[in-house]
Amino acid sequence: MKSAKYKIEKKCRICSKKRLFNLINLGNQPLANRLNNKITKKDLKIPLNLCICKDCKTVQIKETVNPKILFEKYFWQTSTSVAARKFSKIFSKKILSYLKCKNPFVLEIASNDGTFLVPFKEKGLEVLGVDPARNLASISLKKKIPVIAGFFNKKIVKKIIKIRKKKADLIFARNVIAHVKNIHEIAESVHDILSDKGIFAVEFHYAKEILDGLQYDSIYHEHLFYFNLQTIKEFFFKKNLYLCHAFKSPISGGAMVALFSKEGINLSSSAKKILHEEKIQKINSISEWKNFAKKTRLHKILFINIIKKFLDNKHKIIAYGASARSSTFLNYCNINNEKIKYIVDKNPLKLNKYTPGTNMKIISFLQFRKKINKFNTLLLLAWNFKKEIIEDLKNSGFSGIVLTPFPKRVIIKKIK
Prior knowledge:
By secondary structure, the protein is an alpha/beta fold. It has 2 domains: 1-64 and 314-416, 3-Layer(aba) Sandwich (Rossmann fold), CATH 3.40.50; 78-284, Vaccinia Virus protein VP39 (Rossmann fold). The chain has helices spanning 67-71, 82-98, 118-122, 134-142, 154-164, 183-193, 207-212, 229-237, 269-280, 286-312, 324-332, 365-370, 386-396, and strands at residues 6-8, 20-30, 45-53, 59-61, 63-65, 105-109, 126-131, 147-149, 168-174, 194-205, 225-226, 242-249, 255-261, 317-320, 342-344, 361-363, 377-380, 400-404, 411-415. Strand 18 and strand 19 form a beta hairpin. Helix 5 packs parallel to helix 6. The longest helix has 27 residues, at 286-312. It is globular. The N and C termini lie far apart (53 Å). The model has no long low-confidence stretch (mean pLDDT 92).
């Protein structure tokens, strides 16, 4: 134990074996969502090391930060993304088509601002969210989405069953299972509150996409695990939850939605296909992840050289996307407010704050539009929302170069 703030793990969080293989050190990083109210050089910085378990092959980071520090106040708001709002409707339709029971009770773990529960509520279903971020829970309540403010665990499960007098027919957890240190308790709690015919849907940033797209910007302290379908299947199998279906999601630059049941339902053809592809491509091999680490180091060198060239040629650069993933990337590449002063973001909770470790001032898209002619180059850090952002830029009259660092390589493109 290094301090009460974080712990360095010596054994795998999944199988408890002491056979962690180090892949890459991303340096001492600030907490990616810990935005500041002013410029500071006193950010809490914690080591960030990616590793893989030699036994169960689960990719993970070695550092575990105290969850209360990470999640009690949270700045990512789901509803700020057009893509997320659109997918919320697709998500509900797909999940409900697979569920066998009528009028299910729907429970979301880490419900954020309630965006993904809204389509279920609009269908007249009983819904409930659980989220530790009180600032987001209040936003959910304004949408008339009932929410319990707290971490999902066995204590909260007992509380829900006592109040509702029934179990949940559909439980879903979007981009949260990979973030929790008490993953074993959460899996066991899901099993306790899931009805016998119910479905548990888990959305997670798909490690195959991280690997294929060289998405090292998605590695940060909140994101403890980097699952493929095979590794997450094996974990939940040990908790008596069985994979039955899987489909891809456009969120986070490439995610996977895996469906689990308490009964041994036949595996769908799409899930079988995905598992087969992982095996053929050796996605869970140490050699593939060692190659990923090597490419990451080379990508950093290349990007730093590109930015230096642009700055030497007097380009006026602004960044777009004050996300957790941009924090990892900027800090790893040593890009700070001395090189780029402003970063644009549409999330109102982030405005006029400063990025951790790099001290860029976060401004609104409206503020950017007012001074749009002062910049001729935009660093697109929210590249996973590239299509909608480029459309906004064109409609706003931005003319210049867009630097997109991911996936795989840096793309330099001029738009008019």
